[in-house]
Amino acid sequence: MLRAEGLRHSFGAVRALDDVSFSVQPGQTLAVFGPNGAGKTTLLKVLAGLIQPQRGRAQVDGGRRAIGWIGHQPQLYGQLTVRENLRFWASLYNVPESEFLLRKDSLLVRLGLQDHEHRRVSELSRGLVQRAAIARALIHDPRVLLLDEPFTGLDRMAAEELRELLSEDAAEGRASVLVTHNVDEGAALSTHIAFMRAGRFAHFAPRAGRGPEQVGEDYRNAIA
Amino acid sequence: MRSPKLLRHAWAVASKDLLVEFRSRTAILSAAVFVVLVLVVFNFGRDPTAISNVDLAPSILWVTFTFAAILALNRAFQLELENQALDGLLLAPIERSSIYLGKLIANLVFVAGVELIGLPLFALFFNVPVLPYLLPLIALIALATVGFVAVGTLFSAMTVRTRFAELLLPVLLLPFMIPPLSWAVLATGRLFAGRPLSEIAGWLNMLAVYDIVFVTLALLLFPATVNE
User: Fold this and answer.
1) Closest residue by Cα to residue A19 from A219, A202, A163
2) Which terminal residue of chain B has fewer beta carbons within 10 Å of its beta carbon, N or C?
């Protein structure tokens, strides 16, 4: 479903990705942990096709149509309502009108946004904006989800709802790659774990029943 | 199949931009105020006995339209940086040239709106006979506007991620605007002087060629300008 082979990329003298290879199958969630500057966001951008790697290749079955992106920036227009934003992004993904209406209603209910559909994004709280961003990322029913620090700005309840939503989606066969520096939030969601340092995977393995505390300890040992 | 999709995506981008502008009215208001102020300043800051209105008016008209358009062009991609929406556009499974085309359409509508406000004010302040030549004047304005908005939209995309985008855009754009601007000024002067339309046909043709060349070039170059 998603494959990365020998990815290398540098920004000037800084090597952001250094021979990174892995694959993620349907229903799997890879959580990539690493400190700031480890290359996590660059990895996601390469997977999304926003950056062409200098060496290696990344392949997502279904191409860009199959990718959904949730970042710490919502990629929404503040002057447009939640509905108008969703309609705009759905139109770029060629989602038919009938399917758009069904998916929009379902997502708004799942994300607790049904009372905010006609409000401008600029009028929403940070937590509601992030929920709307999640709806935007899922409006075209992507088979692969790329998540860049998705819990930033979410309150506890919203973070818990996002975790539930991602777990349900994984159970339905969606593959995800989640990058974060917060081990506690990412570990519980993942089926596979990678620790990233200076553009390299210092560790890549199935989570295999490890809880957040064990993953945190393994992370400190690997990155130290 | 390719063209309808390209046009549909372009229209989605353009209508989104116009709706955002309609809601905020930031750029249209600042451009309209700018047009009024420039025309007022030129109206009072000239000696009417030194140069006749008909000789001076074409230059003033085009200088006003040019700088008002630059205000609009600066904003074209700025709104995509809000919340990193540009990354979303680049990630979407659409041809990147459709983003350019959408921005071009929105900028043209926007600049046309500013020109619609500016032209009557210009006729009022400078007492030039616009009505007898309205159709050829509109054709001239449309052809010149398409040319410099096409180039300006491309440069707006190139400069948006730079630190001095608002300064860099006019510095890059103005040299490319010299040909259409000079042809437009010369043709407008002939119109206001009551010369026959056949005298401006050559400039209209050159403006049309400029439009075709630069719209085509911009469509081809745009994908490379937005890559990280």
Assistant:
1) A202
2) N
Q: Tell me, what's the pLDDT at B2?
A: 60
Of A69, A73, A80, the CB nearest to B19: A80
CATH superfamily of A1-61+144-224: P-loop containing nucleotide triphosphate hydrolases (3.40.50.300)
**Rounded CA gap, B80 and B105, in Å?**
16
Q: Do A84 and B19 touch (CB under 8 A)?
A: yes
Chain A to chain B Cβ contacts (< 8 Å): 68
Residue with tokens 């003298």: A13
pLDDT at B54: 77
Q: Which residues of A touch B79 (CB under 8 A)?
A: 77
Q: For A148-177, what is each residue's pLDDT tens digit?
A: 988 877 777 778 888 888 888 888 899 999
Domain boundary assignment for chain A: 1-61+144-224, 76-142
Highest mean pLDDT: which range of A153-167, B42-56, B64-78: B64-78
Q: What is the dihedral of CA A207, A48, A52, B99, to 10 degrees?
A: -170
Per DSSP, A180 falls in state: E
| Mean predicted lDDT score pLDDT of chain B | 90
